[in-house]
Write a structure and sequence with these properties.
There is one protein chain. The chain is mainly α and 409 residues long. 73% of the residues lie in helices and 0% in strands. The chain has helices at residues 2-43, 53-70, 82-104, 111-129, 138-145, 151-161, 165-177, 194-207, 211-216, 218-222, 228-239, 246-258, 265-275, 279-292, 297-309, 313-326, 331-349, 356-380, 385-398, 402-406.
Length: 409
């Protein structure tokens, strides 16, 4: 019984193998016929610039052959055949040349279709070059394709203008990445637009909400100086919510290096360090900034605020007064300066090494200094009652300012 089973299995194997072989032979013959049809379509693909019945007929023949041959690329038996690859490239080039020729003659064309066909042509050429059989055609194909390469950048810009972000990214990616491929190893491209293309690619990545696409050409994009500040800001924002925030901090530092007076990088850099309990590191950047611009209000305010957080009130008072000398209506410095004088008044009242009369005199001097700053803060921030009320209460009480005191009740 076992021998019969083995014999039956062997017969099935031979039968299936024979059937597969017959099917492969049949498909091979069909491919031969389809290749001949495709060659005929390519030979007849002449005089296609004019938009007439005959040119439309010939273009349709190319398109039909393209669809037919594309089916063979899904089959491992045929996808690497040289004849299939070469005729498919010829078909794509013929179609792409129609768009180019019509564009050169200022004839109306479907620009999006041209962009996508050019992208398809380059991808197919790169795919063929990656095969062993394609390497012998590298020099010929690179020289053939090089004049079209710049159209990828134009195509990317066109797709961006029409908010076709994925198509735009694909064009820009091919523009930048393809020149690094072996196919173009002997071609000397003009790199003048590379940084601009990288910036556009980053913008596409942002629109596609893809950090990986944003990062692929990020270093080249940063070198595009006309939009470097915006680029660094975009990259910082992209990494802001990630933990740990190493990359967020990196781009804040880069932004500060190039644009120390930017209203974006410096405040966030200081906020990062102070919120992570690294006031000393924040102060290093503040001092660097002040060396460049000692009168900058943003830098002075940052130093004043960090000194307050460190409870270095004597230094904080000095910077607070300097800030208010240039702009007396700044809410935070007004409160901080008033608060420092208020703390000094409280401290004076606790100086038991002095007489009661002297303590009261010293305290009243500090309360008098505190008064204008906290009153101005009240005027600037009337709704922040929790801050100014308790201080003004003590000030009015200790200075015997009855009418002022009554205004708090």
């Amino acid at each position: 019984m076992q021998k019969v089973t083995l014999l039956f299995t062997f017969i099935l194997f031979l039968t299936s193998s024979a059937s597969a072989s017959v099917l492969d032979n049949r498909r091979t013959r069909q491919l031969k016929n389809d290749l001949e049809v495709a060659r005929t379509a390519v030979r007849k693909a002449v005089n296609l610039v004019e938009d007439n019945d005959e040119s439309r007929k010939r273009i349709k023949a190319l398109q039909d052959s393209e669809r037919t041959l594309n089916a063979y690329f899904k089959d491992s038996l045929f996808r690497n055949r040289k004849d299939l690859r070469l005729i498919s490239l010829d078909i794509l080039k013929k179609q792409y040349d129609v768009y180019n020729d019509r564009l050169y003659l200022n004839m109306p064309i479907d620009t999006m279709a041209m962009v996508l066909k050019g992208k398809q042509y380059l991808v197919s050429m790169l795919s063929f070059d990656s095969l062993e059989v394609g390497k012998s055609y590298r020099k010929k194909h690179s020289e053939m394709l090089a004049p079209y390469h710049g159209n990828l950048l134009k195509g990317g810009i066109y797709c961006m203008a029409h908010e076709k972000w994925k198509d735009a990214w694909d064009c820009l990616d091919l523009y930048l990445d393809s020149r690094r491929q072996p196919l173009f190893s002997d071609i000397k491209f003009n790199s003048a637009n590379d940084e601009f293309a990288a910036f556009l690619a980053l913008m596409c990545g942002k629109s596609l909400d893809s950090l990986s696409l944003m990062m692929k050409y990020s270093e080249e994009a940063i070198n595009y100086s006309p939009r470097r500040e915006y680029t660094l800001q975009l990259l910082a924002e992209a990494w802001k919510l990630f933990t740990p925030q190493k990359m967020y901090l990196h781009y804040l530092k880069e932004g500060f290096k190039f644009y120390p007076q930017s209203s974006y990088f410096f405040p966030r850099l200081i906020d990062y360090y102070t919120s992570h309990g690294k006031a000393d590191e924040a102060m290093l950047y503040i001092n660097k900034a002040l060396e460049m611009d000692p009168r900058n209000q943003l830098f002075l305010l940052a130093k004043h605020s960090v000194l307050m957080s460190q409870k270095n009130y004597d230094e904080a008072l000095k910077y607070g007064v300097t800030l208010l000398r240039d702009n007396p209506d700044q809410a935070i410095p007004n409160y901080n300066v008033g608060y420092i004088y208020y703390l000094r008044a409280l401290d004076a009242q606790k100086r038991y090494d002095r007489s009661y009369r002297q303590r009261q005199k010293d305290a009243q001097e500090e309360y008098s200094k505190c008064l204008p700053y906290i009153e101005r803060y009240r005027k600037l921030m009337p709704n922040d009652r929790e801050r100014w009320y308790p201080i003004l209460y003590e000030v009015y009480l200790n200075l015997n300012m009855g009418k002022k005191f009554d205004s708090l009740l």
